[in-house]
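Long-time lurker, first post. I've been practising inverse folding by hand and with some scripts of my own, and I keep getting stuck on stretches where the structure tokens seem ambiguous. Below is the full token string for one chain I'm working on. Before anyone asks, I'm not after the true native sequence, just a reasonable design that respects the backbone. If someone could post their per-position residues I'd love to compare against what I wrote down in my notebook.
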């Protein structure tokens, strides 16, 4: 129903933001990750929203980027995961980290979310792994747009292929250091026959 809410941040907690829109205070449910990236009270903010309607509730779920919103909407298509569960997952990891966890089959990382068990995490991976790719990530979008400060480059890390570079960037986004990520990727054999997703999975096994 609402594509986004744009106004001034009136109040914020770890799971809710109040946005003043022309004198009306609108409650928007948010993730802990979104809460940590909100501007200060009184500053302007735009949250991209998903409207959830049921018999006894009318709720808005909001995110600072369309990418985060799209990941939320994918999560709630998974059997057993509703808006509350999807928000819990996106509270312990941002959208890109979740994409990488799905691509690498890292159910353990996903199940760190409150109320999300190992079976639910595995189901999410199974149902979404074919619906996302590394091209959906913020890192890949920034590279495609010409790069950004702090994004790894093949030249600076001496990586000899684009798919290796993508795997290293994915590992860094998951929280691993640049040096250990590069070492794990370069230690792999027969990478010429692997795509970036397979390289990522193999490198994660070496890092565990």
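-- Answer (accepted) --
I ran through it position by position. Result:
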């Amino acid at each position: 129903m609402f594509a986004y809410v744009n106004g001034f941040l009136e109040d914020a907690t770890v799971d809710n933001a109040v946005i003043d829109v022309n004198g009306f205070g609108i409650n928007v449910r948010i993730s802990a990750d979104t809460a940590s990236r909100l501007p200060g009270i009184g500053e302007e903010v735009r949250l991209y929203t998903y409207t959830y309607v049921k018999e006894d509730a009318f709720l808005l779920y909001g995110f600072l980027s369309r990418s985060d919103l799209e990941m939320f909407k994918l999560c709630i298509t998974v059997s057993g995961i509703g808006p509350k569960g999807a928000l819990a997952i996106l509270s312990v990891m941002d959208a890109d980290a979740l994409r990488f966890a799905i691509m690498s089959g890292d159910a353990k990382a996903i199940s760190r979310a409150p109320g999300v068990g190992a079976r639910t995490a595995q189901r999410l991976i199974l149902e979404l792994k074919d619906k996302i790719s590394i091209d959906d990530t913020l890192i890949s979008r920034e590279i495609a747009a010409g790069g950004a400060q702090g994004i790894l480059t093949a030249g600076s890390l001496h990586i000899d292929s684009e798919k290796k570079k993508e795997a290293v960037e994915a590992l860094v986004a998951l929280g691993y250091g640049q040096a250990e990520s590069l070492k794990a990727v370069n230690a792999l054999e027969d990478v010429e026959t692997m795509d970036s997703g397979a390289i990522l999975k193999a490198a994660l096994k070496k890092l565990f």
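A couple of notes from the structure itself: The beta strands are 4-12, 16-21, 24-29, 44-54, 57-63. The longest strand covers residues 44-54. Happy to go over any region you disagree with.
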